[in-house]
Each structure stands twice: as structure tokens, then as C-alpha cells.
Amino acid sequence: MGDGAGNLGLHHHPHHRSVSSSNPSLLCGPLSLRLSLSSRSRGLAAARDLSQGELILTVPKSALMTSQSLLKDEKLSVAVKRHTSLSSTQILTVCLLAEMSKGKSSWWHPYLMQLPRSYDTLANFSQFEKQALQVDDAIWVTERAILKAELEWKKAIPLMEELKLKPQLQNFRAWLWASSTVSSRTMHIPWDDAGCLCPVGDFYNYAAPGEEPCGWEDLKGARNESSLQNSSFWNKDATNNSDAGQDDVLSQRLTDGGYKEDLAAYCFYARKNYKKGEQVLLSYGTYTNLELLEHYGFLLDENPNDKVFIPLEPEVYASSSWPKDSLYIHQNGKPSFALLSALRLWATPASERRSVGHLVYSGTQLSAENEIFVMGWIAKSCHVVLENLPTSVEEDSLLLCAVDKMQDPNVPMEVGNALRSPGVEFSAFWEVHDLKIGDGNGGLLLSEKARRSMERWKLAVQWRLRHKRILVDCISHCTEIISSLSPTFLGHRGYQS
Ligand SMILES: C[S@@+](CC[C@H](N)C(=O)[O-])C[C@H]1O[C@@H](n2cnc3c(N)ncnc32)[C@H](O)[C@@H]1O
């Protein structure tokens, strides 16, 4: 690929291998680039068995796309200096658009050309896609993301005008593309909050942090930022320990990627053993599904960090000192420790709260009666939330099946017709996009715009379905606890949904 970013001096470790006919991967060394029809499902696979802690990729500083490297462009640098109110993320976004404007003459051209053409992060959601989330909190987060993108774009327009970027690179669509690139692909670097774009390193797909060795809990508080940048968070040990005690460090390392000052490179490690052919994944940080959707445009069916918040009486917050954001239901349907404690205290007569405080804060059940009341209250609240949402778990599951079939390019026309029936939402999507049925066995004709919108609609339905399933699981959990404490209780109160 010549002297441009196609030839970046990346290194794979520890055994360098050349690409051979028996190893037709796009990269040499322990990783291969897995491509598929959709740019969204590209990822890195193990080209041989990998061991936990193994250094598998280094990307030198010179290959990282950062504001610092892009601002070597004198004209850009002079202009940016005149716009001191812009954030580091806005500056990187403008720098990315300015680099795009150079076309083939950009050193980064090969890298820029393989970036996704569009994104599914919440800021890209249309009115229809946003409403499909159904849950007020999620709709609000989406509106906030859209407003933030608009505001940041408007504030950056004077700089883009000064740079005389082409009109198509100055409009909101281009801004959304560039800011979504920054949101979903940058990695943390110590010298710039905006992070860096890391060729090849940004092909790693995400796995939620799972069961981790000791130290995991201690690290939790500092996560939840808006990009791959958290990946570096785990590298604190690795950054500070160079060669000394390397084996120890490797075995204890919580990291899978981070910038190493001593090597002047971004380094990636295998955080577990991988078999040849397995996808090698990176933990970008701890995110709920809504956060994944907001910053990265995807969600996990099984996300150990997912949370559901239910409406609570103001008195619940007032009666304990737990922060609001600790009062939630886990993805397995169990109330969080804080939620349970806060409700146990709230369900205790005010005059007795002081005397039971120490039991509550140590997670102890106060009495069967108190526990039954609390579980009943949670189950009832989940039930009310579910009742007030426009569609049920069953309807959402059917809708997802129908969308899956619609996305199947081989869907015959008759099936396409049948798919138009399930519910108002389907008709609304149909109308918004003015969809047509193709002739012969061509099936449904979806414009590129409709196809992309259907992808985001599906993400919204998947999100709300996961949300509802957590509420349903919570009702089952609470009902089980109630029946274990008082087998006859259910008959009297009927808390089941
Ligand atoms: C840093 S990039 C990873 C490489 C990306 N798949 C590509 O083709 O360029 C992050 C993006 O990959 C996709 N992604 C990452 N992890 C994923 C996962 N576990 N499931 C689905 N999509 C994922 C999302 O679109 C996300 O915004």
C-alpha cells in the first residue's frame, strides 16, 4: 500500500510469521482480520492458539491518528488555535473531517477508506427509531445524544468555515459520521482526552468484562466513559512495569490494551487463552446496553452489566444514603444490593429505622414480613412498568422475527406481504420509508436508507425486549422469594404478572 497509512509498521508478537498460502489472513502474526459482508461484523481472529497475557499487537505512536499528529498540518493548526472554546473531542472531529477533505493525497487515505460509512449510535436515531425504544429514560438519553451532537456541530461550524471544508463535509450528517467515528473507535491516550484512532487496533470487537481476577471491584468506579478509551484503564500495571517481573505482571494483568510510554506504542494483549480461529475481543469498559447503544451502536443479548431502573417513591431515596444510580435491577432480574437495602429500610416504620440501620447496610433481611413486603412491592412495580409499555415481550419477539425475515435477501414476495401485518409499528415503518414490494421473486426492495433504518429499529426493539425480560425475570425472582418465605402468601396477594 505504498508509504501511506497502509504501511504502518504494526507488529505482531511474539513470533513474526509471513503470510503464506496456508494462512490467507490479511494480517501476519497471531491475528487475522475477519471480514464479512457488513463492515460492522469485521473483527480480529486468533491465527494460532494464544495464551492469556500474550502481547499480540503493537501499533507505534507514529501510526496513531491523534489531534497532535493531524495538527502537524500548519493551516489546520493555525486555525484550531483561534478556536479555544472547542473541546478536545470537537477538535479531533474537525481534524478527521479536514483529513477526509484531502482525499487520496492524505497519508491516512487507506485507513480512512475502510472506516464504516455510517453508524448506529443513538445520536444517529431518527424520530421513529427513537420512539421504538419505548422507555422514557432511553428516549431521553437519545434526545440528549442528538442535541449534544447538534450543539457541538454548531459550535464547530466557524472553524470548519475558516478551513473552507467542502459543504458536504460541513453539514450535520458529516459531523455525525465523524463524531460517531470518534465515539465508537477512539482509544485512550494519556496526552489527549479525545483519544486516538488506532489502525488495526480498532478492529477489536467488544466483550463485556467478565469474571476477573482480584482487583476488579477496586477498578470499577473509574470506568464508563464514552469510547474504547476505557480499554487503557486496565493497563495501569502494564504501563508502570516494563520488563521487571514480566511473568508476574502478565499473569496478573487486567488489561487487554493500552498505550505504553516506554515502547511509544499502543499494545494489545490476550486477556484469556484463545483457540486458533476464535475471535479475539477487547473490553472497552463496563457498559449497560443503553450505554453501548449510545456510544457504540450495538448491544449484547447477555450483558452482565445491564441495569433496569424502576420508579421509586421519593421517600425511598430520602430514607437511605444510597446514590440513585445504585438502585436498579441486575440483568439476571435480581434487585441490586443498594435497592434491596433501601427498600428494606423504607418498609420499616420510621421510628425503628435507626435501630436496624446496621443490619440493612450489611445486607441482612430484617424479617420475613419486611422481605415479603419489599419483594411484593418490587414485583408490583415491575408489573406496572411492563403494563404501561405499548408492546409485550411476546409481541416484541414476534416483531424481531419478522424484521429478521425482512432482512433476509431471499425473502419471497408472499412472505414480504405477510410481514406487513404484525401491528401498527410495522405499518409505521412501512409508511415512513415508503417501501415497495419487488416484482417476480425479487422480494422486498429496500433502499439503502430504509435498510440502515431497519437495522437501528431492530436495535431499538432488541433493547426494549432485553429491558422487559429483565423486569419479567425480576418478577419471577421476587415471587420465588415470597413463596419461599411464605408458601401460602401468593394465594392471598397474587403478585405474579
Ligand atoms: C472499534 S470498532 C470494532 C470493529 C468493527 N466491527 C469494524 O468493523 O470496524 C467498534 C464497533 O464494532 C461493532 N462492535 C463491537 N463489538 C461488538 C459486539 N460485541 N457486537 C456487535 N457489534 C460490535 C460496533 O459497531 C462498534 O461500534
Structural notes for this entry:
By secondary structure, the chain is α+β, with helices and mostly antiparallel strands. It has 3 domains: 11-64 and 199-296, Beta-clip-like, CATH 2.170.270; 67-197, no CATH class; 306-497, set domain protein methyltransferase, domain 2. 46% of the residues lie in helices and 10% in strands. The protein contains 21 helices and 14 strands. The chain has helices spanning 67-70, 74-81, 88-100, 109-113, 127-131, 136-162, 167-170, 172-185, 216-220, 236-240, 246-252, 289-296, 314-319, 337-346, 350-361, 368-388, 393-407, 413-419, 423-433, 448-485, 489-493, and strands spanning 11-12, 31-34, 43-46, 55-60, 186-189, 192-197, 205-206, 257-260, 265-269, 279-282, 307-308, 329-330, 436-437, 444-445. Strands 1-4-9-8 form a 4-stranded antiparallel beta sheet. The model is unreliable at 15-26, 211-226 and 231-253 (pLDDT under 50). The chain binds S-adenosylmethionine. S-adenosylmethionine is lined by residues 39-40, 42-43, 116, 184-185, 202-206, 228, 296-298.
Record keyword descriptors for this entry.
497 residues; alpha+beta; Beta-clip-like; set domain protein methyltransferase, domain 2; 3 domains; four-stranded antiparallel sheet; four-stranded mixed sheet; 14 strands; binds S-adenosylmethionine; protein-lysine N-methyltransferase activity
